[in-house]
Every structure is written in C-alpha cells, then in structure tokens.
TrEMBL record:
Residues 429-619 form the Vacuolar protein 14 C-terminal Fig4-binding domain. This is Vacuolar protein 14 C-terminal Fig4-binding domain-containing protein. It is found in: Endomembrane system. Residues 677-745 are annotated as: Disordered. The keyword RNA-binding does not apply. It comes from Brassica napus (Rape). It comes from the Eukaryota. InterPro entries: ARM-like, ARM-type_fold, HEAT_type_2, Vac14, VAC14_Fig4p-bd. HEAT repeats lie at residues 92-127. PANTHER family: PROTEIN VAC14 HOMOLOG, TAX1 BINDING PROTEIN-RELATED. Belongs to the VAC14 family.
Length: 745
C-alpha cells in the first residue's frame, strides 16, 4: 500500500475526495499521468496496487465524495493504461458496476460517466462484462433521477455500438437474462428491452429469430401497454420478426404456437388481433410442425370468430377455413379426440357463430375420419343432444346434420331416436319449440319412413301414456302448443311427400300396408291421430268405426282442439284427393260417413263445424262415374242409403272383420281400444286422486267448523250422516258406449 501511496502524490490523494468536481477532475488528470509513467517504466505491480487503493479507500468508502473520487480515479487509470487496460478490467469494472446501485444519485451518475470512459478505451474487451452491464443499465433506465437516466442512455448507445461491431458477443448467454427481464412492467425498462431486441436482430451474425420463443410472450405483453410509444415499438419489432419467419426455411413454430394460443384470448383487442394474425401465418407456413398443436390453435380460433372486433373475426374465419382444409391423418400425429374435445367445449359458447363453426368441425371430422370420431362418440353425444335445445335454428339444423351423419350406421340410428324421445319426454318445451324442426330435418337427412317407423316402435312401448299421446299427436300435426305455430309434419311437410304417397296406397300395396301397420301401433295413443292416419291411407271404413268407438270421456277440450285442426287441414291441398272423391258419394260411402261422424262431434257454433258442413253441402246428389255416366244418388234420405251401399273401385270391404290386403282392421280396432282403455283408466285414477284429496280437505274443514259451533252453543255434535255431504257431490261415472249406428242420420 505504501508503494501505491508513493505513486500517488498526497495532493492527488486528497483532491480525489474533495467535494468540488473540478478538484476531483484535476486529481484524476494527475492520476492518469502517474499511471502512464508507471506503464512506461513497466511497473505493473504498482499499477495493480494503485487500483486496489482506489477501490478500498475510495470506491468502497462510506463517504459519497470518496466514492465519486474513486469512480473518476478508476476511469483515469483506464485512460492512462490505454492499450494495456484489458488486463486490469477484472479489477476496474466490478466496483464501477456496483456503484450503479448506490443510494446517492450523483454516485450513480458518475458511475455511468466512469464506465462510459472505460468502454471507450477498451471497446471489444468490454463484452466480457456485458450481462452485468446490461442488467445494471436495465435498472438505471428506470432511475428516478433524470440526470442518471440521461447518463445511462448515453452509455447504452455506446454499449450497443460496441456489441454490434464485436465478434465475441454470446447471444446464448444473453437470452436467459433478456427472458427474465421481459416480464418487467416499467415503461422505461420496456423501451430499453425493445430497443436492445431491435438492435440485436439487426446484426447479421446474431440469430435472434432462433431465440424468439424465449422472449415472444414478453413482446406480446407489451402490446397492451398504456404507452402508445411502447405498443408501437413492440408491434414494429413483432412485424419485423414475422417477416423474417416468412423468409426463413427453419422456424420453431411449435413453441411459439403455444404462446400465440394464450395471447389470442387476451382481453386487449390489439393483442388478440396480432396473435390471430400470427396464427393465420403459422397455419399457412407451419405444415407438419403444427399438427400436434391443431387442437390448441382451434381452441384459440373459434372464440375469435365471434369477436366484437370485425378485423379479428375476418382473420379468425380465414384461419379456420385454412386449418380445416389441411389434409392430415391420425398417423401423422393428428389428434381427432383433442379436436372433438375443443369443438365440444365451444358448443357451450354464448356466441352463435362459434357454436356453428364448432359443429362444422365435428361434421368435417365425421366425413374425413369417421372411424376415429365414432370411437369418441360417447364423449360428445350428450353435448350434441343438449345442442338440440339451442336458441338458434341454424345451430339446431347443423346438430341434426351431425346426428344424421352418425346415424347412418344402424346401431347409432336407434340410439339417436331413443335419445330424442327421452329428451322430448324429459323436456316438454323441447318438443314444443324444436320438435317440428328436428323431425322434419331428420326425415330429409335420413329416410323419412325409417325415422317414423323407429319413432312408432319406441312409442308403442312407452309407459308414460300422456307423453305418448302428446308425442303421437305432435308427430301427426306438429302444430304448436304455443302461439307461434310450427309447420305441419306428416300431413303437410314437403319433406314427407314420399311417405304420404306410400300411406295413400296402404290398401293396395305391400309397402304402404307395412308402414300403416307400423305407425298404427303408436298412433293408437291419440284418437285424432288414428283418424288422420286413416284418412291419409284412405281407410275410411276403419276411420268411421274408430269414431263410433269413442266414448264420452274421449270428447274433451283437447280432442276438440285437435279435431278443429284436422277439419281445417282437410281444406288444404294435401287432401285434394279426398275432396275429389266426394264427387262419387256412391263409391265412397264410408268417407261420407266418417266426415258426418266428425261433424256430429263438433259444437254447432264452432268455426270448424261450419267449414265441414259447408263442404258436405257441396257433395252432389249425382255420382260421376269413371265412364262419364251420371247416375242419380237417391234423394230424400241419401245417407241412409249410402251406408248400405256396397263400395267398389278397390275401396274397403263392408265387413270390417275381414282383412284387406293383409291389414286386419278388426285386430287394429282391438289394439286401439286397448290403448284407449289404458288412457281412460289413467284419467279416472287422476280424477279420483284429485277428488279424494279435495274431499278429505273439505271434510276436515266441515268437522272443524262443527266443533267450533259446538263449543260456542254447547250443542251435542251432529250425527255422522251429516258429514256425508261430500259423498253426494261425487260426479257420476261415465263409461257408457255408443251403439254402432248412433251417428247415422
């Protein structure tokens, strides 16, 4: 230490710690000259001792002025050493860097100044300490003192110049530090970081693109910064990297895809737009590298399709179409189950557009990878069924297409119909709101006859009789139970024209007969449905017999409402053939009897009664035969003659106990009556239960009133016969049956 003191004059030693800058500056110049003299004499040992003296007595001193003197002294030594300075940098630089974190702002300022002067001397040799210097500058860029910030910026520019011209810079050692700092929120630090990323990316020998996944998330995070300048700088850097990706033959798409997927759901609009734009380019460029990330990418795209920002929606739709058009196989790593899982989750989205695209994906996968989709069917089937209750008609139609695609296999067809009936039973509103559109669409996508046969088979064994009746009537008419009328199905829907034509030939063709019998079993749950089915199948005699079999319990408000609908339906084009048959009353006697039977069931003041009566008044008294001959139908009491007239022209046989083309109408009638008796028994049980409940309540109320009166008037309790008033109010049992000819005129 004495050698060091001898090399430094006492005045220099004293002035280095002076409070006046000029004195410290002059002392530093003297120190510089002293070091040059030592270099000339080759006394490197004494130079090292001088440096240690400056560190120990000055740089580490608790006195701020001493620390300032130490910093300026170390810089002066470096200048004096000149080309020899490199070998002493490990002694000189660390104490200067430590001074960056000094509590005194002036010390931090002089630390920047000292390191700046040191860097100017050593240039490239400076790179050895780059990470430490970068870390210090990163913190100083957000310094509370403006002068320190200014000094740090000046030093920063010099360091950037040194790095760009150096061939010793190690990007591999620097990236971990950069990645760590990218999460800092301070705007000054963010500007500092983006500046360094941009500078390093501009150096041809530094491959920043290869390390982009390490700091990409940090750049995206800056896109939502409150500072417009920072957002602009981050966007500019990202745009430059994206352009490099387009031009680069080798890019790590996978790691970056994970980041982009997360950023695509950012609450910040600009971040979402940038992320979805990057994903769009990745899908176009990534190829096989992105196959295992397709599910994650789809999970990011689908919500963006319904984004409130139009630009995001446009890019998301384009990306979605691009992704769906890529041809990949499970053998290539394409995970069908993962894609289905994403689509299933998105079916719960609040946005219709997203739900529609999710269904389009399921449909696409079903067409391209049917075997794999069916393996995961149990995972998505319940969700698809719930989607039938969706508020959007477009969604429901697409769900039905998916269901129809699955149901092409016989094993899944019955499963679908069973689940539909189950859902209709569990959710009556689904039957009311969606029943028509579901059945009609399935009849288009699948075979209508097959659909109706399966529905009939299931309903035939239905234990819930009320539901079976409602379901059958719905299948027959599908007119709304709400104020918004749905379209008719079996009797009016264009989709079921082939099915209706088949039923019209029930008495003459084997296929029609089989369909009639198949539907009849479940149609028995609704008298009006059976009558409608018979009119459609031209089984007029059986329709008349069914009408005759009805009892008082069957003629209720619900029945009359359904009858009103049928009468109005008879005036539509679908029943034109039936109205034309009225031109031959002698041939179609049972048709007349059926229509008159319906007329007798209607209240005379109802609109339906007037409609049907008006139609029957137009029936001619002359029968127009096929050969152009006109024969007079009997006047006076024409209907009594019609019903005894044997039908011809292929109509039904008058003897209902005989079979016609294989249809045993007597057995069908017995089947109908058995089912209706079950309904009547259930109705009586409900009435009795309701009566017993109300009667019990009334008896308790009477007993309570009598007891109160007895207590007030001290009278003896009334006899038990006085409590039998309720029994006298029991409605009479109605089970009488009409005679076969009761409806004849």
């Amino acid at each position: 230490m004495s050698d060091a003191l001898s090399a430094i004059p006492a005045a220099v030693h004293r002035n280095l710690s002076d409070k006046l800058y000029e004195k410290r500056k002059n002392a530093a110049l003297d120190l510089e000259n002293a070091v040059k003299a030592l270099i000339t004499s080759g006394d490197h040992d004494k130079i090292s001792k001088v440096i240690n003296l400056l560190i120990k007595d000055f740089a580490k001193s608790p006195q701020a002025n001493h620390r300032k003197g130490g910093l300026i002294g170390l810089a002066a030594v470096t200048v004096g050493l000149s080309s020899e300075a490199a070998q002493y940098l490990e002694q000189i630089v660390p104490p200067v860097i430590r001074a960056f974190f000094d509590q005194d702002s002036r010390v931090r300022y002089y630390a920047c100044e000292a390191l700046y002067n040191i860097a100017k001397v050593v240039r490239g040799e400076f790179i050895f300490f780059f990470n430490d210097i970068f870390d210090a500058l990163c913190k100083l860029s957000a310094d509370s003192d403006a002068n320190v910030q200014s000094a740090a910026h000046l030093l920063d520019r010099l360091v950037k110049d040194i790095v760009t011209e150096s061939d010793q810079f190690s990007i591999e050692e620097f990236i971990p530090l950069l990645k760590e700092r990218m999460n800092v929120l301070n705007p000054y630090v963010r500007q500092f970081l983006v500046g360094w990323i941009t500078v390093l990316d501009s150096v041809p020998d530094i491959d920043m693109l290869g390390f982009l996944p390490d700091f990409l998330d940090g750049l995206f995070n800056m896109l939502s910064d409150s500072s417009h300048e920072i957002r602009q700088q981050a966007d500019s850097a990202l745009s430059e990297f994206l352009q490099e990706i387009k031009n680069s033959p080798s890019v790590d798409y996978g790691r970056m895809a994970e980041i982009l997927v997360q950023r695509a759901s950012s609450p910040d609009e600009f971040t979402r737009l940038t992320a979805i734009t990057w994903i769009n380019e990745f899908v176009k460029l990534g190829g096989d590298q992105l196959v295992r990330y397709y599910a994650d990418i789809l999970g990011a795209i689908l919500p963006c399709i319904s984004d409130k920002e139009e630009k995001i929606r446009v890019v998301a739709r384009e990306t979605n179409e691009e992704l769906r058009s890529i041809h990949v196989e499970p053998s290539d790593g394409f995970d069908v189950g993962a894609i289905l899982s994403v689509a299933r989750r998105q079916l719960s989205s609040d946005h219709e557009a997203t739900r529609i695209e999710a269904l389009n994906w399921i449909s696409t996968l079903l067409n391209k990878h049917r075997t794999e989709v069916l393996c995961f069917l149990n995972d998505i089937f319940d969700t698809l069924l719930k989607a039938l209750s969706d508020s959007s008609d477009d969604v429901v139609l697409l769900v039905l297409e998916v269901h129809a695609g699955v149901a092409k296999d016989p094993q899944y067809f019955r499963q679908l119909i069973v689940f539909l009936v189950h859902n209709f039973r569990a959710d009556n509103s689904l039957l009311e709101r969606r029943g028509a559109i579901i059945v009609r669409r399935l009849c288009v996508l699948l075979d209508a006859e097959r659909v109706y046969r399966e529905l009939s088979t299931i309903l035939e064994g239905e234990d819930n009789l009320d539901f079976a009746s409602t379901m059958v009537q719905a299948l027959m008419y599908f007119e709304a139970f709400s104020v918004h009328a749905l379209n008719l199905i079996l009797l009016t829907s264009p989709e079921l024209a082939k099915l209706r034509n088949l039923l019209k030939g029930s008495l003459v063709s084997r296929e029609g007969k089989e369909l009639f019998v198949a539907l009849y079993a479940s149609w028995c749950h609704s008298p009006m449905a059976i009558i409608s089915l018979c009119l459609l199948a031209q089984a007029y005699q059986h329709a008349s017999v069914v009408i005759q079999s009805l009892v008082e319990e069957d003629i209720n408000v619900k029945f009359l409402v359904q009858l009103d609908k049928l009468i109005r339906l008879l005036e539509t084009p679908i029943f034109t053939y039936l109205r034309l048959q009225l031109l031959e009353p002698g041939r179609y006697t049972w048709l007349l009897k059926t229509l008159y039977g319906l007329l007798m069931l209607l209240p005379q003041q109802s609109a339906a009664f007037k409609i049907l009566r008006t139609r029957l008044k137009t029936v001619p008294t002359y029968s127009f035969s096929g050969g152009g001959q006109i024969s007079r139908a009997s006047s006076g009491v024409p209907f009594s003659q019609y019903i005894h007239h044997r039908e011809d022209g292929g109509a039904e046989d008058n003897n209902i106990n005989n079979s016609h083309q294989g249809i045993n109408f007597a057995a069908r009638l017995q089947q109908f009556e058995n089912v209706q008796n079950q309904h009547r028994g259930q109705t009586r049980n409900k009435v009795n239960y309701s009566y017993n409940t109300s009667s019990s309540s009334a008896s308790k109320e009477v007993r309570r009133s009598e007891e109160q009166q007895q207590q007030q008037h001290h009278k003896p309790p009334p006899s038990s016969t006085s409590l039998s008033v309720a029994d006298n109010n029991r409605p009479p049992s109605i089970s009488s049956r009409k005679a076969p000819g009761q409806l004849q005129l």
